[in-house]
Amino acid sequence: MNKVYVKHSVVAKIRRFTPWIYANEIDSDPEEFQSGEVVALFSKKDGFLGTAYVNPKCAIFARVLSFGKEEIGKKFFHNRIKKAIAKRGALLHVTNAVRLVHSEADFLPGLIVDQYGDALCIQINTAGMEAFRDVIVHTLKHLLNPSWIEEKSDVHSREIEGLVSKNGTLFGEAKALFELHENALTFLVDIQDAQKTGFYLDQRKNRAICASYVKQDDTVLDLCCNTGGFGIYALKAGAKECVFVDVSESAIEQTKANVERNTLSGESLHVKDVFTFMKEQKYKNTFDMIMIDPPSFAKTKEQANGAKRGFKHLLMESTKAVKDSGLIALFSCSFHVGKKELLEIAMEVSHDLKVQYILLEQMQQDSDHPCLINASASFYLNGLLFRVEK
Ligand SMILES: C[S@@+](CC[C@H](N)C(=O)[O-])C[C@H]1O[C@@H](n2cnc3c(N)ncnc32)[C@H](O)[C@@H]1O
C-alpha cells in the first residue's frame, strides 16, 4: 500500500476523527496516486494515522476509511454494512423504507444505500467507493438477500471525481411502484423514476412533527411538495384543504395518487415554479400552515448568497400568505444555508414585513441519516417551525 504524507498541521484534526483531507493538506505529490487508490496516511513526525482512499482530481484528496490498520476488502465492508443495518432497527416500527448506509456518518464515505422493503437502491459517489462496487453489491446480497438492487449514481459530484453517471438495475427485477408505509400513511414510490434515491426519507420525522401542529379543518400550503409528503400528513391530521405545488409534473401526478391511496381529499394540485406561483396567487392571510421545502439552492459555498435570496423571497411571500398566528415550516437541505442562516433570513423578513416569528421547533434529518460531528457537511438538513405573529 502506498503512503501519503500529510502536513503536521492536520495531524490533530485527523486524530479527532475528521475524515476529509484536502489536497493542500498533504506533503506528497498528488499526481503519484491513482483515483480511488487505497493508501496509508502518515505524518513524518507522528507516524501512521489511518487508511484512506484518494482522488488527485478532487479538492478533498483523501477520505478516511479507517483510523486503524485495517485491510480494506470483503471483511471490512461486511462488518461496516452489518453494523449500519443494525442501527436502523428502531425505525422499522414506523416504516418499511430506511436509509441503511449514510456515507461518512456510517464510516463508508461515498456510499448511500436505501432499503425499500426487500429492494435496495444504491448510490456510489466517489472513485474510492466505485473501486469496491462488486464487493459492496456482493455484501448487500449476502447480508440482506434483496429481490432487487437498483443503482442511481447520477449526482454531479461523480463528474468531479472523473466518473460517468450509472443508473440501472444491478440485480433482480425492477418493480413499477413500491408501497412505502410511513407512520399510518402509504406513499407509492417509483424508485427508478423518482428524484434522488426514491423518496425523501430524511424528512420522515419532520413530516410527523409538522402534522402534530395541524388542527381540525386547517388550510395548508405545501410548497415544493414532491410527492406530497408534508401535505398528506396534514390532511390525515385533519386539515380540510391542502394546496400542493411542485415544478415536477410527475411529482404532482404521484401526489394525486398518494392522496387517493390514503383515501384523503381536499387537495388542490399545481405544476408550477414556486416563485411564479406565489407571485400569481398573491395570497393574503389565507393559510393556517405553510411548508417550504425547496431543493438544495446552494450546492457550493459560492451559490450561498443567491440561495439566501431565494429563501428570503419564499419566506416573505409565505408570511404574507399565512394567517395571523399561523405556522410556517422552513427547510434547507443545503449545508451552505444552515440553521444560523435561516434564522438570519427570518430576522430580515421580520424587520421588512414588521411581523414576529416565534420559534416552535428546530428540525434536522431523521436518524437513519446520521450526522457525524467531525464532518460538518453531514448536518445538511435544517428546518425551523415558526408561529407568525402579525
Ligand atoms: C426537497 S424536495 C421536497 C420533498 C418533500 N417535501 C417531501 O417531503 O417529499 C424539493 C422539491 O422541490 C421541487 N422543485 C425544485 N425546484 C422547484 C421550483 N422552482 N418550483 C417548485 N418546485 C421546485 C422538486 O421537484 C422537489 O420535488
Topology, please?
Blueprint lengths: L2 E4 L4 H5 L4 E3 L15 E6 L3 E8 L5 E7 L7 H13 L10 E6 L8 E6 L2 E6 L2 H4 L2 H12 L3 E6 L3 H4 L5 E7 L5 E5 L2 E5 L14 H8 L7 E5 L5 H8 L4 E6 L2 H13 L5 E5 L2 H8 L5 E6 L11 H18 E11 L6 H15 L2 E9 L17 E8 L1
Helix pairs in contact: 2-4, 6-7, 9-10, 10-11
Tell me the span between the first and last alpha carbons.
Answer: 64 Å
The SS-based structural class is alpha/beta
What's the helix-strand series?
EHEEEEHEEEHHEHEEEHEHEHEHEHEHEE
The strand line-up of the biggest sheet is 15-14-13-16-17-19-18
Q: Residue share in helices? A: 25-40%
Structural notes for this entry:
The protein is an alpha/beta fold. The chain has helices spanning 11-15, 74-86, 127-130, 133-144, 157-160, 204-211, 229-236, 249-261, 274-281, 304-321, 339-353; strands at residues 3-6, 20-22, 38-43, 47-54, 60-66, 97-102, 111-116, 119-124, 148-153, 166-172, 178-182, 185-189, 219-223, 241-246, 267-271, 287-292, 322-332, 356-364, 382-389. It has three domains: 3-66, PUA domain (Archaeosine Trna-guanine Transglycosylase, Chain: A, domain 4); 74-172, 2-Layer Sandwich (Transcription Regulator spoIIAA); 200-389, Vaccinia Virus protein VP39 (Rossmann fold, 3-Layer(aba) Sandwich). The protein is built from eleven helices and 19 strands. The protein has a seven-stranded mixed beta sheet, with helices on both faces. A five-stranded mixed beta sheet has the order 1-3-4-5-2. The protein has a five-stranded mixed beta sheet with strand order 6-7-8-9-10. Helix 2 packs across helix 4 (133-144). The protein starts with a strand and ends with a strand. The mean pLDDT is 95. Bound molecules: S-adenosylmethionine (SAM). S-adenosylmethionine is lined by residues 195, 200, 203, 224-227, 229-230, 245-248, 251, 273-274, 293-295, 333. S-adenosylmethionine binds at residues 195, 200, 203, 224-227, 229-230, 245-248, 251, 273-274, 293-295, 333.
